[in-house]
Design goal:
Length: 451
């Protein structure tokens, strides 16, 4: 289907033409006509499939510029994501200045934001959940909203924002409220938590699997020794010549180390770095430089893997794998966006065999390459499944108690629970290792006595 076949306002069609968007993606074709009829939806589709336009186009088409009040609210989990969606809306309203839009995020002066809303009366508000809730509670934002959108919905629920979303829905008093939730991933916890607000809402998904992406080739690279991940990375980057490559790391420490290594390896290239401890100004500078094609390599924690539309990336490298498989899916989602193709490389290191096997079972088809000098030889790698330590009923009950003890959910609660469970499991593992050592000592003593 072509965009000009839809009954859209002239400024929307003009912007789409300027952006060279002619044909709807599969998920857009499934959702935009429905949302234009003011129906509520939960949209699930792979990263890079154009989910933002699924709600952006209908909400802009539905705005009544003559009304001096907010008609649409868009909730996002991070400032970066809010800025990104805001910038996409700006591309359209540049052709229709009568539509007013405001960005509400933390760290910005709230008093200035209040004055801006009262003076500007924005038709659309895009922002982070806590800041929007704060201004709704103070009645700075009108509460008779037509449409509310929860983007990156699973990230909002996983990050402990459900109480804030609950309050927002409690404050909005529109009986015919249109509700839209978007996510690249779905899971049972996400569905259960959102069902309270999205009753009688149809789910639209265009993918049988969130893991399989035909536009991305998945590769695992290794050396014969497999003892030095940095050496493997070194051999890989000398053999590829990406237009723009993102190197993902699990920790800030690794991010800094690899940034320094690549900077010394390629002194003639400009290398970018992105992690949570950068200031807001530094992050904005990095994204501006990405958008102006100043980098060939960007080294990032998973801050850059979720929802961010990094233009031009054709290669991603994972320096190890994240514990949560969803984050790997978001990493590879930075390439192969829309109809482009891309490549993903995982730097193999000992201890990630279980994760690779788990991802393979989710229909991710890995190709294995041995790096040797200037050669990249396709060669299978023998993976070894590490046996899981089984815990007794007493330990399982202790873990259940930790999960259930805090019924009142607060931001960061999942991280706290995870740390407490980790401590219990570590204690049992240490006990198990001590018992094994004692058994070996006893066995060796008996053996020596026999001699």
């Amino acid at each position: 289907m072509l965009f000009n076949e839809l009954k859209l306002k002239p400024f929307i069609l003009k912007t789409l033409s300027d952006l060279k968007f002619k044909e709807l993606t599969k998920i857009q074709e499934e959702t935009i006509p429905t949302i234009l009829h003011h129906k509520s939806l939960i949209i699930t589709s792979q990263t890079g499939s154009g989910k933002t336009l699924c709600y952006l186009i209908p909400t802009l088409n539905d705005i009544e510029p003559s009304l001096r009040k907010t008609q649409t609210i868009i909730l996002l989990p991070t400032k970066e994501l809010a800025r990104q969606v805001y910038s996409k809306y700006l591309e359209f309203i540049n052709n229709e200045p009568s539509i007013r839009i405001t960005l509400l995020i933390g760290n910005n002066d709230i008093e200035k934001q209040k004055v801006s809303i009262q003076h500007k009366a924005p038709h659309i508000i895009i922002g982070t959940t806590i800041r929007i809730l704060e201004l709704l509670e103070q009645k700075i934002i009108n509460r008779d909203i037509k449409t509310i959108i929860i983007d990156e919905a699973d990230m909002l629920t996983d990050s402990g924002f459900i109480p804030h979303i609950n309050k927002i829905f409690g404050l909005i008093n529109s009986e015919s409220l249109q509700k839209i939730a978007c996510s690249a991933t779905t899971h049972e916890s996400f569905a259960n938590q959102l069902s309270k607000y999205l009753q009688n809402t149809r789910v639209v998904s265009t993918s049988k699997s969130i893991w399989a992406n035909q536009n991305v080739s998945n590769n695992i690279v290794y050396t014969s020794e497999n003892t030095d991940s940095m050496k493997t990375l070194n051999l890989l980057v000398k053999q590829i010549n990406p237009y723009f490559c993102i190197v993902f790391c699990n920790t800030k420490k690794e991010t800094i180390e690899i940034f320094q290594h690549l900077t010394s390896l390629f002194p003639e290239k400009k290398i970018g770095i992105l992690h949570k401890d950068l200031s807001t100004r530094q992050r904005k500078k990095v994204f501006n430089e990405i958008n102006t094609n100043q980098y060939q390599y960007l080294v990032s924690t998973d801050l850059g893997s979720r929802g961010i539309d990094i233009v031009g990336a054709d290669v991603v490298i994972s320096y190890g794998l994240p514990e949560d498989d969803k984050w790997f899916m978001h990493r590879i989602g930075r390439v192969g966006r829309y109809k482009d193709s891309g490549s993903s490389f995982v730097i193999y290191r000992k201890g990630i065999d279980n994760v690779i096997i788990r991802l393979t079972k989710k229909n991710i088809d890995f190709h294995y390459y041995l790096l040797k000098g200037d050669s990249m030889i396709e060669k299978p790698l023998e993976l070894r499944m590490k046996k899981k330590l089984m815990f007794d009923q007493k330990t399982n009950n202790a873990i259940k108690t930790i999960i259930n003890k805090n019924k009142r959910v607060k931001p960061g609660y999942k991280k706290k629970i995870k740390n407490e469970i980790f401590k219990i499991k570590q204690k049992i593992k240490h006990k198990f290792i001590e018992q094994k050592i004692k058994k070996n000592l006893i066995f060796n003593n008996i053996k020596n006595k026999k001699k």
